[in-house]
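TICKET #2291
ISSUE: user wants both folds in one file
ATTACHMENT 1:
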Amino acid sequence: MVSTQVSATGAAHFPLQAAYEVAPRDLMADLERDPCSVFVVDIQDPEIFEAAHIPGARNIHLEDLCTVCAELPKDRAIVIYCGDVSCGLPLWAALELAQDGFTAKYLHGGLAAWAKEDLPVEISPPPPPPEY
């Protein structure tokens, strides 16, 4: 049997988590309504980002997010995502940014959920060939 205190703590977790998440269609609606109100950050490795990402997203690897914190816009909602629902890092990153005064959320389900909704993705162009 689970104690009441543990259950209450667990129950308090879900509303808190929901306050920091955004569904793919809701993010798309925000981007269509006012693209300058949202700053989308993909925290995956650059190679994964280049293969497919949300249009307009910036690739800032999780390890670098705190380093570039001063460069992030405080006047826009920051939405962070990674590959899929199994990655818990965007929630952690959104909470960290919120503690630093940012309006931050994470994309529930990541890029996989975005693509499953048939929402647009961009592919980065390959780098130019070296000049000899």
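ATTACHMENT 2:
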Amino acid sequence: MDALEALHTRTSAPRLGGAVPDDEKLDNMFKAALRAPDHALLRPWRFLLIKGDARRTLGDLFVQAQLQDDPQMRDVPVEKARAKPLRAPLIIVVIASIKEHPKVPEVEQLISAGAAAQNMLLAAHAQGVGAMWRTGSMAYHPLVHQGLGLTDNEKIVAFLYVGEMAGKARLLSRLTVNEYFEEWPKA
């Protein structure tokens, strides 16, 4: 698949299963992440790979975080939180590692980490690998940050769920370019 086809056809794959993609496909995804736009070459990102039983450990961490917020939480929400990381064979946690810099504000570094995540999604799609970008409340929870070893200058930008697509790809409606792009100043 060429680059434009990947850009024009990428969709999220909410149902994932199978095995972790092979090393070559993962390496292509990781190399794509490292080519994200990066003002001042700060490399303001890092990534955690969570697979196998580590997904269950992440599920337990999600439960701890939710119970910290709501100690009276019932069994069903607890089990739902515990099962979230099992939705795919691999989760890539995209972390923005913010660095002090006189010309590169935090927002640019967050966007750079987001661009790294998007590059991985595109590389996955181009190779026939299913992927879904998720965040949710656990991406922002201090206990999850602590459990994953984030420092004070780090933020989770995405949980990328990666695996084999289960079911059909979602068909998205075509968007009209003119609805979103216009010349400035207007004549």
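RESOLUTION: both attachments delivered.
EXTRA DETAIL ON ATTACHMENT 2: Strands lie at 16-17, 45-51, 90-97, 130-134, 154-165.
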